[in-house]
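Werner Syndrome-like exonuclease: structure, please.
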Amino acid sequence: MAYNQTPRTIDIVDHELPYDSHNTYDVIFFGDSIHTTVTHDPDVATQWISQTESIHRRRLRCLIVGLDVEWRPSFNRYIQNPAATLQLCVGRRCLIFQLIHSPFIPSAIIDFLANPHYTFVGIGIEQDLEKLEDYELGLNTKTVDLRSLAADEYGRRELKSAGLKQLASLVLEKEVEKPKRVTMSRWDNEWLTPPQVQYACIDAFVCFEIGRILNASASTSG
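Here you go.
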């Protein structure tokens, strides 16, 4: 089933798998089809990691990974909700791992995030890593904040406070929609809606693409 947002540019196809453990989607973003797996199952997440590393085995010493985290919004300054989902994107493959519903964090995820040869890229990625600390994740993750990378690349200091929409427009020349109704939605729900899946996938994919184009892995070498 397709849920169309902007004709021919942004779309999602729900594969409607007959499983309780996971579902898959194809998220269409300006001609790129991102195969997206949504799961709370440690075994499914482990399989995604294994397949991704196999597909990209020739570039594992300089792998770039788009990373993003979503959590249920809190309207109380004294209450901070834990991370609900971890999104990882490599090429046209995306994993949305529902941390909050997983019985445990598989070692494959732990090892993937700690691999010193992998560069994880995102917007405000340090805040995402702080959220992952609730699950004892991200403590040894090699990261690049795309805002600083873009600021250096373009010689524009103001980009250090840019958002994903601005960087996508500048680097990719593509417009990213971030509807507030999705941004502020219940990311801790057991079953994410297609708009949530589309939003989460595109965030991670766009981070990956910006990191790839700006050669983020080179900025952490040496």
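Notes: DSSP finds eight helices and eight strands in the chain.
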